[in-house]
Automatic annotation (TrEMBL):
Record localization: Cytoplasm
Pfam families with a match to the protein in the record: RuvX
UniProt xrefs under SMART domains: YqgFc
Source superkingdom: Bacteria
GO molecular function: hydrolase activity, acting on ester bonds; nuclease activity
A single cellular component GO annotation: cytosol
Function of the molecule: Could be a nuclease involved in processing of the 5'-end of pre-16S rRNA.
Name this protein carries in UniProt: Putative pre-16S rRNA nuclease
CDD domains given in the database record: YqgF
Coiled-coil positions: none
UniProt EC number: 3.1.-.-
Protein family membership: Belongs to the YqgF HJR family.
């Protein structure tokens, strides 16, 4: 198991949920919800600043596929965002795409079970989904001994993936 802090990223159309692991790569915790930038790279710059703040060595970005494993418009959007993040982060901080099927639904169920109403969930559901994505990746790496998902190169951010 590789040690060091990782950032989990749940890409949504309006918001990006951010989670982080501890340096021992055991536990994922929520950090922040970043608003998506309609124009410019304010969202990417904020995520890079969070990575600097926690000295994260890689990003784990959710790869939203349909239940059958097929790509969807959300898949294309997340991959394009991850490509922008990879281009901005450079080779020092790899961006890994990991399967995130059902992470948002699971996050909503957990928040509902904790007594949060739908309106209360909106600002934090993306963070909760990022925690689920990152925790799954940490657990998978611990079980297999191999880093999860695949590293995205900066030029792979096109929707044709």
């Amino acid at each position: 198991m590789r040690s060091g802090v990782r950032l989990g990223v749940d890409v949504g159309r309006a918001r990006v949920g951010i989670a982080r692991s501890d340096s021992g790569a055991i536990l994922a915790v929520p950090v922040e919800t970043v608003a998506r930038s309609a124009e410019g790279d304010d969202d990417i710059r904020r995520i890079l600043a969070i990575a600097d703040e926690y000295d994260a060595f890689e990003f784990v970005v959710g790869h939203p596929l349909s239940l059958s494993g097929a790509a969807t418009p959300s898949t294309d959007d997340a991959v394009a965002f991850a490509g922008r993040l990879a281009a901005a982060a450079g080779e020092q901080r790899p961006v890994r795409l990991v399967d995130e099927r059902m992470s948002t639904v699971t996050a909503q169920q957990h928040l509902r079970a904790a007594g949060k109403k739908a309106r209360q969930q909106r600002p934090i559901v993306d963070q909760a989904a990022a925690v689920i994505i990152l925790q799954h990746a940490l657990d998978a790496e611990r079980a297999s001994g191999a880093a999860p998902g695949r590293v995205l190169t900066p030029d792979e951010g096109s929707p044709s993936l």
